[in-house]
Amino acid sequence: MQSEINPWSANQSIDTDKLFTEFGIEPIEPLLPEIRNSPTFMRRGIVIGHRDYRPIVDAMNNGTPFHVLTGFMPSGHPHLGHLMVMKEVAWHVQQGGNGYVAVADREAHAVRNISWDKCNEYGREYLTCLYALGYEGDTYYQSTNNRLKDLAFEAAIKMNFSDLQAIYGFGQETALAHAMSVATQVADILFPQADIGPAPTIVPVGIDQDPHIRLTRDVAHKLRFFTVEKRDGYVSVRSKNAPEEALAAVHKAFPGSKKYEGHVDIKGGNLPEVDATVRTIEIEYGGFGFYSPSATYHYFMQGLQGGKMSSSAPESFIGFCDTEKAVKKKIMGALTGGRMTLEEQKKLGGEPDKCSVYLLNLFHMVEDDDELTEICRACKAGELMCGTCKKATYERVKEFLSDFKEKMDEAEHKVDER
């Protein structure tokens, strides 16, 4: 694979620095001062990078439209490893975004061979969790969204197997349904703009999902009728595959512009204003006018036995509906960053960054930054023993799940109202 990332793998090691350098992912930290009331997942470095997040920051600060979209593959019961993306979507909606969540049942059926009945069952659980977090917005199943299927077909016209081979490593043995599920995911990302109009769109994902983002940005560009470019003293609107009538409409929209074969030049034009007008014209003449989607990338939540927290490995995760007994057993048996002996722990201190229990607190269980800092300090100083930390973490998880289950019960009816 060109990217050395498999979005469908539960166990893989990703060189984040290499990925950032090779594919142009930028660190999120420089933007944090401009993000009002930045959430814990950004402040704590859980969300580590972004692709073109600036338009989203501007939209949040200026109160202009933007969309937020993510999807969940219903291959198993939801768990704490999924909670980060859910929080990111809910937070962006709270900042003014138009929310969209896809249940990727076509992908689960094609890639994991999950039955349609199970896809529906697991999908309901994911949506219930989202509503329990206060999510407000649209939700849908890929298999029942006919407009999405039409958009996937249009997207597939701009894709070929060379693209899929380069990005995902697909070969002769790859099922066609797997390739079709990729086209559907591209359509998922673009669907909010096709549904209610072009606007910057943020897609919060784990870093393993970057291949989908890169492909969708490429397809979005290919589906545009025009490119709009700032030149020296003028803005040039250049046709890629626009109807001649659309190019004429661009010329007419800007008095004093000059029309040439395949492009219109607007002397002294304001790039954002020209771009907005051109998008409107594209739509009037049957185009989409898509913005290239943006993305934020977060670290994986480490599984309780190391590796990635995955639905395919029950011992690695804490499910939202796990019993207290099961939760306690998993946490007390979790892999930590502690030393081999108590004596070494007191002398050398622990390694919280390698500890699945500490990461539970970092990601979700400790809201107060000062409290988390103290846990980290005490661990590194050899003052906090793993057993004590596990017991305290179990109590936090138990309280969180008890409260969350109540919210899930209260929100379950919303799944049927969508």
From TrEMBL:
<keyword id="KW-0436">Ligase</keyword>
<keyword id="KW-0030">Aminoacyl-tRNA synthetase</keyword>
<dbReference type="InterPro" id="IPR014729">
    <property type="entry name" value="Rossmann-like_a/b/a_fold"/>
</dbReference>
<keyword id="KW-0067">ATP-binding</keyword>
<dbReference type="InterPro" id="IPR002306">
    <property type="entry name" value="Trp-tRNA-ligase"/>
</dbReference>
<dbReference type="InterPro" id="IPR002305">
    <property type="entry name" value="aa-tRNA-synth_Ic"/>
</dbReference>
<keyword id="KW-0547">Nucleotide-binding</keyword>
<dbReference type="Pfam" id="PF00579">
    <property type="entry name" value="tRNA-synt_1b"/>
</dbReference>
<dbReference type="GO" id="GO:0004830">
    <property type="term" value="F:tryptophan-tRNA ligase activity"/>
</dbReference>
<dbReference type="GO" id="GO:0005524">
    <property type="term" value="F:ATP binding"/>
</dbReference>
<dbReference type="InterPro" id="IPR001412">
    <property type="entry name" value="aa-tRNA-synth_I_CS"/>
</dbReference>
<keyword id="KW-0648">Protein biosynthesis</keyword>
<comment type="similarity">
    <text>Belongs to the class-I aminoacyl-tRNA synthetase family.</text>
</comment>
<dbReference type="GO" id="GO:0005737">
    <property type="term" value="C:cytoplasm"/>
</dbReference>
<dbReference type="GO" id="GO:0006436">
    <property type="term" value="P:tryptophanyl-tRNA aminoacylation"/>
</dbReference>
<protein>
    <recommendedName>
        <fullName>tryptophan--tRNA ligase</fullName>
        <ecNumber>6.1.1.2</ecNumber>
    </recommendedName>
</protein>
<keyword id="KW-0963">Cytoplasm</keyword>
